Amino acid sequence: MSNVLSILKIIPTSPEVNRDEVVSHAQTDLIKDLDLEILKKEEEPLFFGLYAIKLFVKTADSDEGTEALQKFEDRLITMEEVDNCEIELQTIIDY
What we know:
Alpha-Beta Plaits; about 100 residues; alpha+beta
């Protein structure tokens, strides 16, 4: 079965947000009970000292994988430190 690589772009609420803590929380607490894997993270400068966090997430190419990604995105948005989260790119990997 194939997998899907999704790049989630997370916008913090302010430049003062500790981006490492957001990623750490996402990698430990937010992915509990979800069938997904965070492969890596990157940061992208936006403006006025604000950086976006990009998480590279691998899920199964199935309805369950789509649901897991949606739940993860919903959990990210509920974080106090996160202003917005969107899927920037999706592609199939691991044929």
